[in-house]
Amino acid sequence: MKGRLCYKGRKSHFTGLDTLLVENSRDTARARADLRFKKQEEAATVRQKAMAEYVAESDARKAKTDKLRALRLAKEAEDLANAPAAPAKKPARAKKK
């Protein structure tokens, strides 16, 4: 322990202990605050990364859906254009009584 000089040049045993406890308390509080801050920063980074992945997946899914929709609509239009004309219906016969 490190003692401090009190007035009149005498060393006080209590002053050094008090200072050590106060410094230790401050250091402990600062260390806890730093740790809490680092955890919050890490959590924020993880959230940002997860959100970026979510947005990227969503964009990819939307692009794929749009592409497949366009292909389906093009195929349906082509099928309608190439479809044979509907055969003419024969007139219904009258039933005999």
Automatic annotation (TrEMBL):
Taxonomy, superkingdom: Bacteria
Residue stretches of biased makeup (Low complexity): 80-89
Region (Disordered): 76-97
Protein name: Uncharacterized protein
Organism: Mesorhizobium australicum (strain HAMBI 3006 / LMG 24608 / WSM2073)
